[in-house]
Structure to design on (381 residues):
């Protein structure tokens, strides 16, 4: 057992006893070309640890590597190293377990401070079966972002994910949320669908063609997608073949299937056939047309130009006019049948009168012949 009450210098470069100078605070001074401390565990009993360790200070070759490191001798690794010139508080572990990187006063479990951008690099070793790849997680006054360093250029990394400062902090208005069941919320903390967007607008933008696809994996049928093609400026729903619906920049709308309107405000004008429906006289309709140049209840060209055209309302209006036209036609048909009956009766009367006239004419002719015969007899006598 050895007790040194003042200072101890160990190493080939220590001066003789009484001539070695000390700084005044160190109890142990290691002074050598390589002032290393080696720990050899000589345990021989089964199950006891035997790993050897070494604290290394600087390289023992001409490499200009100045550092202090912990070496796992048996493992052949250096799991911990601090290079000379490292900044103050490069690594700080506080009494409550917080870790500071670049700060001596960490306020979170891990607190990283850097002059410009604290960056966490995640790099896959080249020996991995996935091949070498590098990602950076960084934050600064411009935002928090994830950089795809490998896919980037020399001067610019690819940034597939970025959060700008000043995002919403309302508990019910988070910008981006992934729920426990995998649902994604944009603008809501409680998404109730695979993608739940809560807000006043949603914009999908890309160069050239933009597609929004709806696909059912369990159904081998067609996928339906909303497609915006910049070159032709059209909005369409597309199945496996030709577009099912297309809205063109010119305003033209093309639909391959049927158009069905079943709105709750739809009023079918069957009331036209009610007994108490006040059907306008045709003379009144003619007067309205002469004054306004369009049918009653039908918007004028000026009204359509100013307010647009409600196709559903117009369809119902046209149906009403068709039903009214049917009533006018039925009235005319009834009037025609009455007139035809009168004509037929008049024709029967005329035929009767003609027959009577023919009979009278024949009787007159017979009477005339008799008178002539009597005159001849008288002359002869």
């Amino acid at each position: 057992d050895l007790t040194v009450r003042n200072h101890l210098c160990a190493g080939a470069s220590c001066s003789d006893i009484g001539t070695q100078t000390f700084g005044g605070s160190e109890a142990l001074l290691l002074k050598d070309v390589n002032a290393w401390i080696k720990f050899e565990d000589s345990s021989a009993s089964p199950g006891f640890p035997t790993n050897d360790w070494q604290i290394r200070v600087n390289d023992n070759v001409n490499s200009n590597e100045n550092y202090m490191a912990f070496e796992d001798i048996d493992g052949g690794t250096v799991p911990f190293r601090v290079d000379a010139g490292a900044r103050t508080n490069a690594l700080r572990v506080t009494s409550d377990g917080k870790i500071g990187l670049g700060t001596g006063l960490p306020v979170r479990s891990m607190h990283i401070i850097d002059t410009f951008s604290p960056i966490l690099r995640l790099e896959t070793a080249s020996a991995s079966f996935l091949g070498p790849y590098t990602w950076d997680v960084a934050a600064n006054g411009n935002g928090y972002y994830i950089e795809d360093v490998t896919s980037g250029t020399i001067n610019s990394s690819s940034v597939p994910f970025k959060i700008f400062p000043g995002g919403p902090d309302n508990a019910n208005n988070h910008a981006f949320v992934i729920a426990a069941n995998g649902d994604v919320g944009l603008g809501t903390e409680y998404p109730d669908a695979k993608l739940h967007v809560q807000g006043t607008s949603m914009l999908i933008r890309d160069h050239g063609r933009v597609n929004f696809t709806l696909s059912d994996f369990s159904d081998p049928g067609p996928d339906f997608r909303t497609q915006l093609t910049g070159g032709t400026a059209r909005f369409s729903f597309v199945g496996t073949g030709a577009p099912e619906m297309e809205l063109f920049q010119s305003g033209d709308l093309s639909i391959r299937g049927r158009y069905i309107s079943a709105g709750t405000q739809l009023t079918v004008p069957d009331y036209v056939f009610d007994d108490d429906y006040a059907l306008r006289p045709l003379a009144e309709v003619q007067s309205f047309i002469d004054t306004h140049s369009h049918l009653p209840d039908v918007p004028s060209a000026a009204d359509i130009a100013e307010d647009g055209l409600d196709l559903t309302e117009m369809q119902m209006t046209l149906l009403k006019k068709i039903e009214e036209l049917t009533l006018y036609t039925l009235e005319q048909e009834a009037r025609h049948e009455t007139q035809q009956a009168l004509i037929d009766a008049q024709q029967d009367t005329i035929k009767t009168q003609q027959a009577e006239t023919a009979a009278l004419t024949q009787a007159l002719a017979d009477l005339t012949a008799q008178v002539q015969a009597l005159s001849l007899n008288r002359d002869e006598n």
Notes: The mean pLDDT is 88. The CA atoms of residues 27 and 103 lie 29 Å apart. DSSP finds three helices and 21 strands in the chain. The first helix runs from residue 282 to 292.
